[in-house]
Amino acid sequence: MRATIFIGSLKREIEDSNTVRLTALVKSELEDYGVEVKLRYLRSRRIAPGVEFDPGDSWDQAGEYYEDIHDSEIIIFATPTWWGIQSSLVAALQERFSGYDDEYISTGKSPLYNKVFGCIITASNDGFQHIQGNLYSFAVNMGMTVPPEASATWGTVVGSEKNPVDNAETMNQVKNMSRNLYLWARTINELKLGSLALEIKPGRVGRDVDDMLRSSPKQ
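Given the sequence above, the corresponding structure tokens read:
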């Protein structure tokens, strides 16, 4: 199983980023479950503005991110809090996901239906729930599944712990998030739930005797 974590820190140096520090803990926990984890530092590549897979800008470097998304069963966005919202880098990537929405509208198929989503949020104050809700809404509308407790947060106010590993609540979130992302992703892919859902045409989801739900795997 594979996961890609897209890191939206605005820090020039990775080692200065609290978001990267928390991401490293999630990465380690997922790897304990046997998940292959790839980190993508969004600041290192240029993301052209747009809502298409190819926005037409010769300098755009987001193409490789689509390969990461296609190859991963678990997608995670990691972001600091800036003025109460996710970073501009994360927002830019969200906008470029719109290509998947267009694809779904035109073909009725979406590779995102077989993926789970989680988020990592660091902040200098409370209010991470606003970003969490924004990202969760984005994920489910794109066709991904959000398991329970699929986020980890760490506040970095003056006087707080200097390292996320020293915050018991944060570490509990890291463990719950990683466990649930792994279990839900494994279940969705073993049962091919996303593909099954997309094979059932709109208007046929119910208890009709011809509905494909009748022949879905029983657990």
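Residues 2-215 form a domain with the Rossmann fold fold (CATH 3.40.50.360). Try to locate this feature in the token string yourself.
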